[in-house]
């Protein structure tokens, strides 16, 4: 564990807490893409298949349970909670994400570290996470102004993988045989997808104005 | 452990 990875995990945890806070405090999920939440639930379920077979550390296990539990709870809330579900922007959140799921799974069948059930699903989860934010970014552009908590949620979600990139650089420089090309390339693509969001987020912060993404 | 893919990251 290094400071970059810890910062990344904490930033990821903060993004989840901010989203839970938004939904719990405002009893509303307006501006949140259910599709992105469902994609993230798939990402965690596919990535943490080794949850019970490979014990790495208490921290690792606890964080996996937190990410799986929170993503499933948010999907449940947005679908079935009688108050929250009314504020879901159903007609704006129309990204056909099964194309993404199919493409990522096909890529994982071709490109993986080892051809085993667990490894293919692990590579699938890495590719899927890289594009999982797309429905959310599309929804932000369509829904015009973005409330603060939603903007902060997306910001922290994008920042966490940027910390992971620093972690991979650090591990590459300090550990002799460290190569994680699948994670690194996907992580770069994932962070690049947030580039324009980060730009408009910085502008809104600098001008102390509402976050506005151009339609 | 070496045959296992060491996915020690989240």
UniProtKB/TrEMBL annotation, chain A:
It is a multi-pass membrane protein. It is found in: Endoplasmic reticulum membrane. One of its GO terms (cellular component) is endoplasmic reticulum membrane. The keyword Transmembrane helix applies. The chain crosses the membrane at residues 55-76, 97-115, 121-141, 153-173, 179-202. Belongs to the ERD2 family. This is ER lumen protein-retaining receptor. The gene is ERD2A.
């Amino acid at each position: 564990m290094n400071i970059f990875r810890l910062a990344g995990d904490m930033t990821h945890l903060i993004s989840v807490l901010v989203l839970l806070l938004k939904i719990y405090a405002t009893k509303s999920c307006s501006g949140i893409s259910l599709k992105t939440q469902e994609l993230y639930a798939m990402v965690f379920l596919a990535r943490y298949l080794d949850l019970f077979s490979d014990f790495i550390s208490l921290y690792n296990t606890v964080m996996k349970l937190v990410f799986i539990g929170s993503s499933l709870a948010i999907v449940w809330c947005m679908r079935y909670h009688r108050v929250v579900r009314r504020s879901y922007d159903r007609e704006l959140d129309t990204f056909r994400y099964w194309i993404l799921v199919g493409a990522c799974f096909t890529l994982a069948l071709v490109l993986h570290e080892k051809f085993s059930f667990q490894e293919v699903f692990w590579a699938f989860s890495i590719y899927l996470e890289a594009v999982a934010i797309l429905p959310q970014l599309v929804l932000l552009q369509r829904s015009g102004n973005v409330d603060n908590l939603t903007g902060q949620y997306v910001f922290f979600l994008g920042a966490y993988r940027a910390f992971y990139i620093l972690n991979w650089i650090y591990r590459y420089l300090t550990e002799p045989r460290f190569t994680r090309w699948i994670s690194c390339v996907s992580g770069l693509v994932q962070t690049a997808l947030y580039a324009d969001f980060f730009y408009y987020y910085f502008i809104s912060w600098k001008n102390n104005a509402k976050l506005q993404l151009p339609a | 452990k070496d045959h296992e893919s060491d996915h020690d990251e989240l």
